[in-house]
Fold this protein.
Amino acid sequence: MKDEFVVIDITTNGLDEDAEIVSFAALRFENGVPTDRFFEYVNSGAVLSDYTSEILGFTNDTLQRYGTTMEDAYWQFIEFCSGSDLVAMHHDFDNKFIERICRKYDLPALENHITDLDTLFHLKYNRGYSTRFAEKQLGITSDENDDWRHLDFAGKVFIVLQGE
């Protein structure tokens, strides 16, 4: 098991290729325990539909009031992740948005080693990563509150899979 790693997640305002990143989140694990958190809203002019706001739990007003520029949010995100191995839940999906903003804003790409839980699940279970399947298959629960549960859970899944 890696002693230290960071679980990362980006949130977009949709699932299509034109969607925009609206937040960056990361949860650092040390010796199997979450030790530090990063979260930043992005105010890039992206618009959330009512449906998307309901799913995400925040609104366009939230992004405008609390969001920072894409450049600032991304720099803070890569600084938080600097020097750490990363774990992503669906790296192929997230990476296409990260690559696009790196090109658009002339930002550096993530150079960290990234483990994709979706890929691990395809190799081990012949299906993609999902929280519900991992709960049933691996018997994992999360102690974190709702806002950080998915990152905490993904970190615990990674730890279990590394120990197998």
